[in-house]
Write a structure and sequence with these properties.
By secondary structure, the chain is α/β, with parallel strands linked by helices. Helix content is about 30%, strand content about 20%. Bound molecules: D-xylitol-5-phosphate and zinc ion.
Amino acid sequence: MPLVAPSFLASNFLRLQDECDMINSSEADWLHLDVMDGRFVPNISFGLPIVEHIRKATNKPCDVHLMIEEPGKFAQDFKNAGADHLIVHYEVCPHLHRNIEQIKNLGMKAGVAINPHTPVHFLSDIIQDIDIVLIMSVNPGFGGQKFIPHTIDKIRALKQLLKEKGVDVLIEVDGGITVENAGALVHCGAEVLVAGNTIFKSADPRATIAKLKSL
Ligand code: DX5
Ligand code: ZN
């Protein structure tokens, strides 16, 4: 049974309290919060004040996905805003080990996200130090994009790498996940499913979460 992390990028920003209430009373495991800077990714989403307000409206862990350059500059701020997990992108961290140490020293779970073109084996010398790998199954920056099928091979490759290294790291997948394709992802090793549009734009979001949980 996968963990399910609804992505608030697809939520109704005018009704965040209602959206949090819906998530609180659902089977969702985490809240996934996408922070974008308009530099690393070609879009700007929301930042610290929104994370802080959402955090106060839920008891579930907040999984903060930073699609920003120089994430180390903001790690303390996101901790203060209530982030439980902080995920940084491999592509913007020349000193990734330092970023990971910083996040863990601040008392958060540390995750690394990889873009669709970044091979899983690039993580081979950091994998023992992290809690979560986030495999992007779309190019980061926007919700509602089409799932990239090659992701399936990357999930398998990551599973294999974890086995070789003998470490236990959560495999999270993000982007274009639907009720139709999620089963295959779980089957090949995905442990956390992030879903935005599939959940928030469905007629019955709680039922959709339950469906994803039952895979
Ligand atoms: C994309 C974000 C995703 C996004 C997923 O850059 O990282 O979390 O919200 O949205 P859907 O599930 O609609 O593809
Ligand atoms: Zn995300």
